[in-house]
Amino acid sequence: MKYRSLGPEKTVETIKKLQSRIQERFPTAGLGAVCGELFEIANESRAKSEWISKPNITFRLITYSIITISLITLLYSISLMDLKLGNIHLAEAVQVAESVVNDMVFIGVAIFFLVTVEVRVKRARALEALHELRAISHVIDMHQLTKDPSKILKKATSTASSPQKRMSAFELTRYLDYCSEMLSLTGKISALYAQKFNDPVVLSAVNELETLTTGLSRKIWQKIVILHKLDESRD
Fold this sequence. Notes:
The chain is mainly alpha-helical. The protein contains 6 helices and no strands.
């Protein structure tokens, strides 16, 4: 059972170690600051996911109290009407029955609304957090866009607007690998929201985010493969 669920503490710890690795290898790069932001988001996500997974006892007590009072009121109203149904015409009986049915439908809709409020509040909070993770995924992708393996080749030409920072093949590989790790961890953070909250909307959003991070990571690994091939061709 120990390894059947994703541990938020371990995820946060892994991101913190990754931030240290980035800062040690690239102390002047902005990627370390982005990883620090991801660490903060992971800490917040741990608290949010725990809040979402736990039942809100206070809210449920209020909801059930309102539902109970509404049902008692409805039953009491029906009992009063039964006492007066002695000598009424058929048309009046139909009107009374229609009124009772309308009240029951209205109360049913109200009960459904109250019962699902907690889920909708938690869903909205989860989707807001997932939107934040989606945004930082694109920020991570922006940091690797200008890291072109062709810069390693002496034949590569630069223009006045070309990025001036140059890395060795090893440094560029490590930088891209760090970006890929950050994207993977972003997907793992999103999985925390669906792990104990069985909501189809949230689960769909998590799957979409994991698809996004996987796609972005695949582009990065294409660059890493090119770097490995360049390194092999030099041997």
